[in-house]
Automatic annotation (TrEMBL):
Gene Ontology CC terms: Golgi cisterna membrane
Organism: Miscanthus lutarioriparius
Top-rank taxon, per record: Eukaryota
UniProtKB keywords: Cell wall biogenesis/degradation, Glycoprotein, Glycosyltransferase, Golgi apparatus, Membrane, Transferase, Transmembrane, Transmembrane helix
Family in the record: Belongs to the glycosyltransferase 37 family.
Cell wall biogenesis/degradation keyword on record: yes
Entry's localization field: Golgi apparatus, Golgi stack membrane
Protein topology in the membrane: Single-pass type II membrane protein
Identification of the protein by name: Fucosyltransferase
GO biological process: cell wall biogenesis; cell wall organization; xyloglucan biosynthetic process
Molecular function per GO: galactoside 2-alpha-L-fucosyltransferase activity
Keyword Transferase: yes
Transmembrane regions: 33-53
Length: 592
């Protein structure tokens, strides 16, 4: 669907009048203003005379308190645009007049800051500017929100506020946990999430855990490690999802596949049994908490907890600790006791992360400042935005030349970018003067740890014109060379690039990349996926395929069949489950 993306809202005309009135009534004499201006000219030249060229993101520490209202866009603006330089224009390049595409207003009824009821209105907007403004940079969602899901979220928010940290109920529950007791008929139950792997994995597992909390009436609490501090705003009004530092079971090193508190190990040691009627088991007879290790192990989820009898038993525990590196939401759709509720929450199955992700994850003002400044500087006034996300995995390294050739094959086969012409001949349908602003401008945003893809694509469109006269600008916000899981600054940049990718009209991404999954699911667009070569080959015969869904892939599906002790290919029996395009044994939700 070719829909122009909304741009930054204009400042209301009344503000201009007030400013003008304030100037006229201030009593300042024009002669004084003229003299002051002349005296400051040398200083202005010294300060602003240099050329600004950004080779990376603006510093996260600069302008962190800047207001989030996007800059005023009132008329087409002439700007230098060509193949990039990460935001700066090479000297000597002729300015191109850019189009102001569908500038929107803050009061436009077409802009629903609550996303159709997905978000709560009970927040102070200044505390988290991205919550109500990030949607201004995207096309409207292609997935209508289920009224039942909106109702479910409001009910959960009230429950979280009643039982969350700082409440009497939370203190009572922690006291019982410290005493080693699992009380009968507890008013509040909890699931505590612990992190694993990189930012993309973490966002996918947090959303999965939150969905599990919705289905099982638990309060979601999140262990925030140092590298994750300051990334996300609080998603629930009047309370916090951050696990207090004095939580008694706050040691991540105890959480592993062999932990005795693991549900799977409790079954093996007969601490709990799932072959008896769970209703006959009093909660007070169980341990104080249960640990779910929902992490992939040999490409399978290691803790098989997606059976009804297991879920009934797990429901007896007031405290649950969960650690995962996987998007296990599809596995919840395979649990019979959850199917009816999920059908009401998500009539469109492939909108699960699209809705939950946009509900939960709102960059803090510090990170939002990075996103907003970069977008407005380089992406806001182009006709189309194409995102390329390239990820090379250490377990299956691909040579740069092979990966670049595969990307270019995908670009040619899918006609993602205009063809190149020759420098000697003018484009066949170009206007006489590109500066008139009649030529179409496409921006390519590259998200990669390496700068080589940017350099080559930028050079290609810098050195040669396109056949149809379109302008292609190429940008790359950062290139960190290697992933740094434990760096807070690295994660800020990663989150900013996820959001920038999610503002693109088209996305091409590397297979298996959770970073890419999050971006295209936020956007609600089906990406082109660059397939991995077979393990014994260096190149892939097929350059890319189009995803059938905007849902992320569950790389490591559980072994289902439950007490039957047999593996079941659920993609063959469930109409809303398919194997992933990039991970043949993986599972993803989709709508036929």
């Amino acid at each position: 669907m070719d829909v122009k993306r909304s741009r930054s809202p204009r400042a209301p005309a009344e503000d201009d009048k007030k400013r003008a009135g304030g100037w006229r009534g201030s009593g300042v004499r024009p002669e004084m203003v003229l003299v002051g201006f002349l005296l400051t000219l040398p200083l202005l030249f010294l300060v602003f005379g240099g050329r600004w060229g950004s080779s990376s993101f603006p510093s996260s520490s600069s302008s962190s308190s800047t207001t989030s209202s996007p800059p005023v866009v009132s008329k087409p603006v002439a700007r230098h645009v060509d193949a990039g330089d990460r935001g700066a224009t090479p000297q000597g390049q002729k300015p191109v007049a850019l189009k102001n595409v569908s500038a929107s207003t803050a009061t436009s009824v077409s802009q629903d800051k609550l996303l159709g009821g997905l978000l709560s209105a009970a927040f102070d907007e200044s505390s988290c500017q991205s919550r109500y403004k990030s949607n201004l940079y995207r096309k409207p969602s292609p997935f209508p929100l289920s009224p039942y899901l909106a109702q479910k979220l409001r009910k959960y928010e009230a429950y979280h506020k009643k039982c969350g940290p700082g409440t009497k109920r939370y203190r009572r529950a922690v006291k019982q946990l410290k005493a080693g007791r699992n009380a009968d008929n507890s008013e509040c139950k909890y699931v505590v999430w612990f992190p694993c792997n990189g930012l993309g994995n973490r966002m996918l597992t947090i959303a999965s855990t939150f969905l599990y909390a919705l289905l099982t009436d638990r309060v979601l609490l999140m262990h925030v490690s140092a590298e994750q501090e300051g990334l996300f705003c609080e998603p629930f009004p009047g309370s916090s999802w951050v696990l207090p530092g004095n939580f008694p079971q706050n040691n991540p090193h105890k959480l592993h596949i062999g932990a005795p508190e693991s549900y799977a190990n409790m079954l093996k040691s007969n601490v709990v049994r799932n072959d008896v009627d769970p209703s006959s088991v009093p909660a007070s007879s169980l341990p104080a908490y249960v640990y779910l290790h929902v992490e992939q192990f040999q490409l399978k989820l290691s803790d098989n907890v997606f059976c009804d009898e297991d879920q009934v038993m797990l429901g007896k525990f007031n405290w649950m600790i969960l650690k995962s590196d996987s998007y296990f939401a599809p596995a919840l759709f395979l649990t019979p006791m959850f199917e009816a509720e999920l059908a009401k929450m998500f009539p469109q199955k492939e909108a699960v992360f699209h809705h939950l992700g946009r509900y939960l994850f709102h960059p803090t003002n510090r990170v939002w400042g990075i996103i907003r400044r970069y977008y407005e500087a380089y992406l806001a006034r182009v006709d189309e935005k194409i995102g390329f996300q390239i990820r090379i995995f250490p377990e299956k390294p691909i040579k740069f030349e092979n990966m670049y050739d595969q990307l270019m094959r995908c670009v040619r086969e899918q006609r993602l970018l205009p063809e190149l012409g020759t420098a000697e001949l003018p484009p066949t349908n170009a206007t006489a003067d590109a500066g008139n602003g009649n030529g179409k401008v496409r921006a390519v945003l590259i998200a990669s740890l390496y700068s080589g893809y940017y350099e080559k694509i930028r050079g290609m469109y810098y050195e040669s014109p396109t056949k149809n006269g379109e302008i292609v600008a190429v940008f790359q916000p950062s290139h960190e060379e290697q992933q740094q899981y434990t760096s807070n600054e690295h994660n800020q940049k990663a989150l900013a690039e996820i959001y920038l990718l999610s503002y693109c009209d088209k996305v091409t991404m590397s297979a298996w990349s959770t970073f890419g999954y999050v971006a295209y699911s936020f956007a609600g667009v089906k990406p082109w996926i660059l397939l991995r070569p077979d393990w014994n080959r260096e190149t892939s015969d097929v350059a890319c395929v189009r995803s059938t869904s905007v849902e992320p892939c569950l790389h490591s599906p559980p072994i289902l069949g439950c007490r039957a002790k047999r593996d079941v290919d659920v993609a063959a029996v469930k109409p809303y489950i398919r194997h992933c395009e990039d991970v043949g044994f993986g599972l993803k939700l989709f709508d036929s």
